Amino acid sequence: MNIREIAKRARVSHSTVSRVINQVDTVDPRLARRVQAVIQEVGYRPNFQARALARGRSHTVGLIVSELSGGNPFFSEIILYFERVAVEHGYEVLVSFADKETHPDPVTVCASRMQERQVEGIATLTFGMEEQLAKFPISVPMVYAGADHDLQGVRNVRINYLSGFRDAVKHLVEFGHQRIGYLSGQLGWSSMRTRFEALRKAMKLAGASFDKDLVAECDHTWDGGAQGMATLLNLPKPPTAVLCCNDVAAVGALKTLASRGLQAGKDVALIGFDDLTICRFMQPALTTIQFSPREIAGLAFRALLEEIQATKEKSNLEYKTKFVLRESTCAPRAQ
Amino acid sequence: MNIREIAKRARVSHSTVSRVINQVDTVDPRLARRVQAVIQEVGYRPNFQARALARGRSHTVGLIVSELSGGNPFFSEIILYFERVAVEHGYEVLVSFADKETHPDPVTVCASRMQERQVEGIATLTFGMEEQLAKFPISVPMVYAGADHDLQGVRNVRINYLSGFRDAVKHLVEFGHQRIGYLSGQLGWSSMRTRFEALRKAMKLAGASFDKDLVAECDHTWDGGAQGMATLLNLPKPPTAVLCCNDVAAVGALKTLASRGLQAGKDVALIGFDDLTICRFMQPALTTIQFSPREIAGLAFRALLEEIQATKEKSNLEYKTKFVLRESTCAPRAQ
DNA sequence: TTGTAGGCGTTATCAG
DNA sequence: CTGATAACGCCTACAA
Questions:
Q1: What is the pLDDT of residues B97-151, one digit of tens each?
Q2: Domain ranges for chain B
């Protein structure tokens, strides 16, 4: 079933049908009704690809994620919500995974797929692989989130990491913590460097001294967090409070604490990052810094849309992390 | 940059270029090399939509999910892995959400989108909304997973719920549990009915009596599980062991237990369903029944591919749930 | 206001 | 083996 078939049945030309479909209002209401009736009757829907071809617009955007962190709900939710908001705006989304699991040369694969489908813009939400992907020889608008420095021609949704860390550190300092540790993700990831920097700055602002020995660099995964916490606990003088680069690492840390008979919120203060739903259900409920995949995906899509539509007045898009107090912190405990 | 431009530069006709791109091996190697060179040089990639139009094949499949259960990692992983395996096979995937959050009439919206993009097949992985979506006036192959009865013309990836429940129940019975409870999702969902049936059968097989009063019907969400467990605990004679319809509900249940000073694996036996990564990290580690989104997505895609390609020898696709023993069970405790 | 003709980038069918 | 030529389904001047 196509536009010509509809035209035949409605006894008009196919251009009239096209006009009706595209709501061109110069068309005679009576003809329009006749066409609509036929469309309804046969359940016709225009062919998206033919339209894209004729109009020269694919109505598709690309989304590049990394998903290196085995089973972190954060990334799957990024996809979920990005897809949602895109669909609401009449866009399709092409998801590409920039990791080695799918292909040895992810950059090329991504680039090819994006180019073939004529995406109108690309959001790169890898939180750390932006730099490698910047080699992309691509000619469409591009959006990052939380890139550490503004790249030429790339829109960046700024992430205010400091706001959350500031309140978190303040909270710990008020409790009297002197030995504050940090479970960092691998610093090869730019967003991990950025988080680390934010923490350092927050410490400085709070007038707290920062001991490099209390930083464990580990995988930003469940197991990575568990290992990292073990490293910190094995220190001659372990920290009395620990912040984590993300929630899954914090949950892993919780596991290690439990295995040593220690309790967060009692023996040691623990703070996560992301605010996954699971935080509310951990025992104790995990205090964390909110970094909502839903909101970030939304902001990124909005930024992308503005770039695609070449909007004059660009919104000032910034996501502000927020400290969320629950039960996993406490005053320092004598060793 | 298009096929004609390449043709011009390689001094051949555009048909020859097309042949080279499509690896038609009747083309003169020298010409082929010349064309390849130009393609490399200008970084040309064929236009996917034009191809789809000309070939009459979209190379796109639809995926319908429900995602009614706020922030259940299970569903986002279904999307993630389905997308992955589809891309590996050269397919694009069109994700549609069949829930009210996006639109009052999800069925129509899904149907329209799927039809417009000319999907070659549709996988409906909602685990309970299949029936409502069956009204779909659609003419392409369709795949379900775990539908409770085989529908005409629809391929169904069978889910063996019993295998997991059988071992779980056996495990509890061996511990000596007499009062086994169940936290069910709303029985309006077919997969919830199926799970419930599987449990009943497993109980029967184990020679255990099944008390209907020990079943709480709740939302299959984090908070739903928490509430359901509260209901069970408020019973005059609460169950000594509880199975759950999924892990997030089990985690919610864990929360309720903790708030009443009870411990799973000590005061009451608790068993989840899904085997989310988080299970390993709960305190105690959650014993559960494995229902892997990765494998199920993979099987569903394979089934879909077979339908699309009209494969003669259909694989016998069945997913077998599996009991995973961890730490959240124990012998019944005197009240 | 409506219809005709041409084009979007590709594949496919023919002659040559 | 190659190259015109005609689809694929739609949009859009331009002409009527």
A1: 887 666 777 788 888 899 999 999 999 999 988 887 877 777 899 999 998 777 7
A2: 3-46, 60-159+293-319, 161-291
Do A87 and B102 make contact, defined as CB atoms within 8 angstroms? yes
For B93, the enclosing helix (H) or strand (E) is strand B92-97
- Torsions phi, psi for A176 (to 5 deg): 95, 15
Q: Given 2.40.50.140, 3.40.50.1820, 3.40.50.2300, 3.60.40.10, which CATH number is that of B60-159+293-319? A: 3.40.50.2300
Chain A interface disruption, residue of B42, B58, B95, B227, most A CBs within 10 A: B95
- Cα B166 from chain centre: 22
- Domain B161-291 in CATH 3.20.19.10? The answer is no
Instruction: Write the class of the CATH domain B3-46.
Output: mainly alpha
Residue B297 near residue B127 (C-beta atoms within 8 A): no
d(CA B106, CA B233): 37
Distance CA A111, CA A6 (A): 39
Out of A49, A67, A112, the one facing B52 most closely (by C-beta) is A49
CA distances from A331 to A174, A266, A267 (A): 9, 8, 8
Beta carbons of B45 and A115 less than 8 Å apart:
yes
The answer to whether the beta carbons of residues A230 and A256 sit under 8 Å apart is yes
Cα dihedral B67/B68/B70/B71 (nearest 10): -10
In this chain, the answer to whether the domains covering B3-46 and B161-291 adopt an identical fold is: no
pLDDT digits (tens, 9 = 90+) for A118-137: 999 999 999 888 877 777 77
DSSP B39-72: HHHHT----HHHHHHHHT---EEEEEE---STT-
